[in-house]
Amino acid sequence: MSEKTKKFLPWILKGVAALFAILALVFMFVLPGVSYSAKEQGVSGKMWIVMSSLVFGGGVVKVDTLGVKLDMFKFKGGLSIFGLIAFVLLVVGLIALVLSFVLKDKSKLFVLIAGGAFLLAGVCALLITVAGTSVTTTELLSSIAAETKVSFKEFLENMNLGTGAILFAVFGILSGATLLVDQFVIEK
Predict the structure, then answer these.
(1) Alpha carbons 176 and 173: distance in angstroms, whole number
(2) Across the strands, what pairs with 149?
(3) Angle (CA) 157 168 171, round 5°
């Protein structure tokens, strides 16, 4: 490997890792964290919750049946413990990555911290349905505003990981792996 390549490759890999981390953050706010699909009597339907609603607690359960999209439930609570940890680790990783650009004398330490934080954030995103706070739901389609309180486990009983949580995990792990490859393979 030429000297010029060795000089610029770590910068490129850090930039790619930052891009992956930002993509994970964007997907968290846009795509479903959990979803459920069912098909009965020839009619298919899908229900989902955006990942950011589970990370910060509170939001709306959206439903799509026959091409009609509705907000079915509004919920308070439902903060996913692992979702919040994943978000915090992603932010810590981004801050450490920025500090690695700024503080060149401690760059290796900050890159290692960022890489580890990104890897752990990706793993925690895959555990978003495991633990969380209790949920109070209010049905939006009913004229009666009755609130129901259920546990986090009951609330997400039939839900699967959504594309937002999966892409958050994939891009978080890719970001961490990119930084760690830079440190342990290329920097040697």
Answers:
(1) 5
(2) 136
(3) 145
